[in-house]
Amino acid sequence: MRVLLCSLSNPGYLYSTLAIGRELRARGHLVAVLCGPDAMRAVSHAGLLPVNVAEYGPAKILRVGSWHYLEDGVAQYTSVRDAARDFGADVLLTSVLCHGSLLAAERLDVPAVVLGLSTWLWPFRRGGASEGDDADREWLVHDMRAHYDGLREQAGLPPRRDRRPELPLLGAAFLLRGHQLLEPPGAELPEEVVYVGPCAWEPPADPEVVEFIRGETRRVGKPVVYVHLGRHWGGSSLWPRLNAAFTGGPLQAVVELGRSIGSDPAPDADVIVVRQPWMDPLVAMSRLVLTNATSAPVLSALRHDLPLVVAPNGSEQPLLAASCLRSGVARLLPKDPDRAADTLSAALADPGLADRARVIGAALRASPGAAEAARIVAAQAEATQTEAARIVTAQAEATQTGAARIVTAQAGAAQTEAARIVTAQAEATQTEAARIVTAQGGEGRTEEDAASGIDAGIGVDAALGARLGSASPGGGR
């Protein structure tokens, strides 16, 4: 089986996709990864075949920042379509937000499995309505559906009419990387959605860099907070609060810049700023995780049984932050910089947060993860191939049955026509024979009647002559 991974190339989306790809490859499937040029090294580290998307279209089309632009979406659609066709893909594995990949799968008539985030972002099928985030969920699903519909139109595909707005965004199966414990109690997700767990993988860390950071934190001697910065999405930068919390306070920070732009640490702040393609070794040396509430740092913290402090801005961040707060594994960072240090210290000292983080962490570690995700991807491809084979067989059988019916009908018609001709010819022959016999019999009777008439005429004439003779004047006395 040939599997094309066509996720977003940002690490928070790419790495979990690569984890599934590695599992698929271990099961004997051929796996290729369509990715941006800056992601090819990570793909090679994962032992998979990288395919540079720049060979098919603009390199930016698999970056998360371009997903909302229709022009980039159309380019993603054509690039994924052409790459999948060249590779002979039987199934696609893509990311939420990759609407062009969904349309490419539809055009090629292959299934697309979508790998989502750590929690469900759209309206629940049932339950969960008391959380007060219904408006956010409705806005997200309708915003994404509007983009999807616009992209269909641009790509020349017919419009869809679905009973639920999220239905075409789910693909053949929709996988979540978190756990049901992160959802509201009693909330029911659509049947197409499956929790598989974190699907954790990242490139190997540089041991020298890890040791340098570890040495610096030991030198400072304060508990470490791992800080992972996400996109601002129009919100405020965390740097004023970070500088206030880690300058002259009881904690120090290792700050991963992630997808944020720029850094602004205060000169005296106990902060180490990094931009690395891995985070697990840094999370492992920490006691607390501070994040804008994106999936990768949240899941990494919980897998390490660490509590969180969340500071969401836009997009999916408020919903994931709400999940962490509701699940009892996080506190909310106030916007007032003067309160930041106290909030972090209180979260670190809260046994309830730590206990709940351990419970959900254990559930995440027990999740089937990439193995289950790989099984689902393979099953979708096999089901599609089986259905295609069934359709081909049914069509062949229908064609053969139709051909046999036509041949039988034609043979029956030929036999009927032949019988009709034979019968008609026999009847014609019998009729002609009867006519000839009848005609010949009539001519015989006419000749006999004529002969009898002559003889009779002679006899009459003779009798008449005799009578006349006796009466004539010249007769006898």
Features:
Rossmann fold; seven-stranded parallel sheet; alpha/beta; 477 residues; 51% helix; 2 domains
Question: Summary?
Answer:
The chain is built from 13 helices and 13 strands. It has 477 residues and is α/β, with parallel strands linked by helices.
SSE order in H/E notation?
EHEHEHEHEHEEHEHEEHEHEHEHHH
| Main structural class | alpha/beta
Question: In CATH terms, what is the architecture of the largest domain?
Answer: 3-Layer(aba) Sandwich
Low-confidence stretches: 387-394, 444-477
Total discrete domains: 2
The oligomeric status of these chains comes to single chain
Predict the CATH topology of the largest domain. Answer: Rossmann fold
First-to-last CA distance = 145 Å
Q: Could you report the average pLDDT, rounded to the nearest whole number?
A: 87
Explain this structure.
This protein has helices at 11-26, 40-45, 70-87, 99-108, 134-154, 207-220, 239-245, 280-284, 295-303, 317-326, 340-349, 351-366, 370-471; strands spanning 2-6, 30-35, 49-52, 91-95, 112-115, 173-176, 193-195, 224-228, 252-256, 271-274, 288-291, 308-310, 330-332. It is α/β, with parallel strands linked by helices and 477 residues long. The chain folds into two domains: 2-201 and 368-392, Rossmann fold (3-Layer(aba) Sandwich), CATH 3.40.50; 207-366, 3-Layer(aba) Sandwich (Rossmann fold), CATH 3.40.50. Helix 5 links the parallel strand 5 and strand 6 (173-176). The longest helix is centred in the C-terminal third of the chain and has 102 residues, at 370-471. Residues 387-394 and 444-477 have low confidence and may be disordered.
